[in-house]
């Protein structure tokens, strides 16, 4: 039994000052013999302090995490180059919340780094073979600045390449969407006079509406129609793994 200091003091006064014996103190206080002897023999009354328990403080970023998570989750359906970087998330939060968003970039960048690992590691990794057969191709978009009739454009180029022969064919566009992708591929098919049997793509939202486990891809209806019309096999890299193509862009 643990007693308060006032009770301990009463026991000591009854014994040392008033001369009561243990049996008398038992009757007067109601404490048992073991408890009374314990405190009569005690000489060290220093307080034993419990280790301080730090309360969990919320992060200044907490009110904005739901928005950040939504943006990063949506990136699963985007081209790798179109995904949110920490800098872009920081910029968009300032634009969306104004002065209400007062977190440091360092705090945000650390959270984005952790969250991206969590989002893009939720499925088993399957690696595409880097040995390519003749007739197999891959498609990439890249940035190309150009002038047309004296006007400068920050444009995009579609590159359909054949890793086995290390050759590629390019189409130039002012944007990067499904229409540009399909028109560019049609132009190259017509130039080649044939169609690759197998083509590797990134997971752009214009082609892939949902990414599941074990390589499952739910294709958009329009891209599925395009693929079936030209009768090529469409293969998709793991999320954030465009390097699996193995061919220099």
UniProtKB/TrEMBL annotation:
Keywords: DNA recombination, DNA-binding, Transposition. It comes from Halanaerobium congolense. This is Transposase. One of its GO terms (molecular function) is DNA binding. PANTHER family: TRANSPOSASE RV3428C-RELATED. It comes from the Bacteria. Residues 7-72 form the HTH IS21-type domain. Belongs to the transposase IS21/IS408/IS1162 family. GO terms for biological process: DNA recombination; transposition. NCBIfam families: transpos_IS21. InterPro entries: HTH_IS21_transposase_type (IPR017894).
